[in-house]
Amino acid sequence: MPMNRAHRKLCSSEKWALTTRDHILPWTLADVPLGDDVLEIGPGYGANLRVLIEQVPRVTAVEIDEGTAALLEGKWGDRATILHADGAAMPLPDESFSSVVCFVMLHHVPTAAQQDRIFAEAHRVLRPGGVFAGCDSQPSFRFRVLHFRDTMNTVDPAGLPDRLAKAGFTDVSVDRHPESGSVRFRATRP
């Protein structure tokens, strides 16, 4: 996993899980129809996953790091399908999910081209009318310090609508959190 020790400690903490539950997911998913079968790309240590499994009947999580996928399987595998796979090349059938989500993980994807492949894969596995929704952090001094010797490739909010449209999405919206500056997006597969 492309995270330094301090970053791994934060992302696996109960404090982060509570921040996710109480702030990140409510803001990111406000008015987003998740449907009955949700795919999360890049669940990391599972802070988002543990909230999602309480909200929807079926959740699948695709995690690129083998060790982390094994941890998720051990903790949540009885309530969610956990796949060790790359979000840019998922071994999943076309049009199989009612929604696809990703939370605070895109900046860990090393290149914009790989991020674009994740967007294309999200589009491919979504059912027509399904929503792709997510959020990610934006650079700040504290964010840069936390990512010392980490992968940190933040998305440009101004260019994100065009990138999602190129992946095939419509009804794209991107906005920023008024306090944190984080970016959230929503897009629909026609």
From TrEMBL:
TM spans, by residue?
Answer: none
Q: Which InterPro entries match?
A: Methyltransf_11, Methyltransf_Superfamily, SAM-dependent_MTases_sf
Q: Does the keyword Cell wall biogenesis/degradation apply?
A: no
Q: Which Gene Ontology terms cover its molecular function?
A: methyltransferase activity
- Keywords, alphabetical: Methyltransferase, Transferase
User: Methyltransferase type domain spans which residues?
Assistant: 39-133
Query: Superkingdom, according to UniProt?
Result: Bacteria
Query: What biological-process terms (Gene Ontology) are attached?
Result: methylation
Protein name in UniProt? Class I SAM-dependent methyltransferase
